[in-house]
Amino acid sequence: MKSSWTLKEHSEGVLEVVVDGDVWTKAQKHAFQYFKKNITMKGFRPGQVPEALLKKQISKEAIYEQAVENIANTVLAQAVKEQNLELVARPTLDYKDATDESVTLEFHCVVEPEVTLGDYKGLDIHKDEVEVTDEDVDKELERVQDRYADWVLREEGEAAVEGDQVIIDFVGKKDGEAFEGGSGENYPLELGSQSFIPGFEDQLIGVKSGEVKDVNVTFPEDYQAKDLAGQDAVFTVTVHDIKYKERPEVNDELIKQLKRDGVETVEKFKEVTKEDLTKERERQAEDKFTSEVIKAASDNATVDIPAVMIENEVDNEYQQFVQRMQQSGFTVEQYYQATGQTEEDMKAQMRPEATDRVKNSLVLQAIVKAENIEVSQEDVDKEYNEMSELYKMDVNQIKQLLPAYQVRADLAQQKALELIKTSVK
């Protein structure tokens, strides 16, 4: 068996393999036996048709085609290893020059693209400083007050202010016609919550109970219902009750209602809250820093990403979206009906971020090679053990789901990312 690789544009190429000798001879024999076992002829039981008669019925081309099918996977694996290729999609197969002595297989492949690295060390990027103030903690206390607040009915004639809850009926119309999903009755809307279309809540500040008011809005350009996106509409709003929020006093009794272990006083709440906010903001700062450094390294690199890699990433993300919908008790069809979107709309939205993820991964792989980053077996075993503890699964079960080569590759990319981060100016 002899192989050759010809790289063309966009990481596509042809892997040509000449198969001859015993390999090709045996493949033809196995192909003939396949036909012998499966062909039926009148007067003969299955598998008992004489070979001389079969040879008259089966064309050489049929034998060659079946023989190629029989050996294609094995030949591909050997040739890919011989040429040291990294395939990113299943190749398509043609064959030519088939004779009893040899055949030439042509695998049309898409391989991992070459990455030209730019600057990735010494980047001028810094992690944000984290600070949690007393005012930040006080806002968390206000949220606790809001959680246990009572809504108290305003007296007749009192106007609604921001933060009030208005109980309303509303009917939305576009071009004078009511549209689906634009109506509601006895809806409790907190003014300032930004839960309605931008501009809707602002226009209800100052209304009084019993008032009927037309609210003019423009739907956002990216509104989920396409027929309403960017369109003007008028909502006729009938105001029923107006309520204001009566917050409880901040004291130890209020904190005890949270039923948090070890947190029973206002002072302890403030202490724990400050620690929690600090940890969360540090995590956010670290995530932002990580995102910025990999984006910079990726932007500085040049790579022609094959379309199939991006589409594979989009398909993976879409399947995860479908699973999340199912776990929530909905179908994608219900989601599309509610939002007016389609599968193609969803995938189009996913494609830009999918492209970034693919490029980031390719750049990190290139850095792994450039820096000769290695992952030890000890590193791999440690990762398996940590996943076992995290997911409460047996290590051997995890190994079946996630092969060692994938764990090794992921850890190598993590090391490459840490190299970028620790080398910043």
Describe what this molecule looks like in 3D.
The model has no long low-confidence stretch (mean pLDDT 93). The chain is built from twelve helices and eleven strands. The two termini are 53 Å apart. It is elongated, with a radius of gyration of 33 Å. It is of the alpha+beta class and 425 residues long. Strands 6, 7, 8, 9 and 10 form a five-stranded antiparallel beta sheet that branches. It has a four-stranded antiparallel beta sheet with strand order 1-2-4-3. A two-stranded antiparallel ribbon has the order 5-11.
Task: Summarize it.
With 425 residues, the chain is of the alpha+beta class. It has twelve helices and eleven strands.
Topology:
Elements: E1 2-7, E2 12-20, H1 21-38, H2 51-57, H3 60-83, E3 92-96, E4 102-110, E5 115-116, H4 134-147, E6 150-153, E7 165-174, E8 177-190, E9 212-218, E10 232-246, H5 252-256, H6 266-299, E11 302-303, H7 307-327, H8 332-339, H9 343-370, H10 377-391, H11 395-401, H12 404-422
Antiparallel strand pairs: 1-2, 2-4, 3-4, 5-11, 6-10, 7-8, 7-10, 9-10
Q: Output mean pLDDT.
A: 93
Gap between N and C termini = 53 Å
- Provide the β-strand percentage band: 15-25%
Number of DSSP helical runs: 12
Shape: elongated
Give the helices and strands as they follow along the chain: EEHHHEEEHEEEEEHHEHHHHHH
Question: Which spans have pLDDT < 50 for at least 5 consecutive residues?
Answer: none
Main structural class: alpha+beta
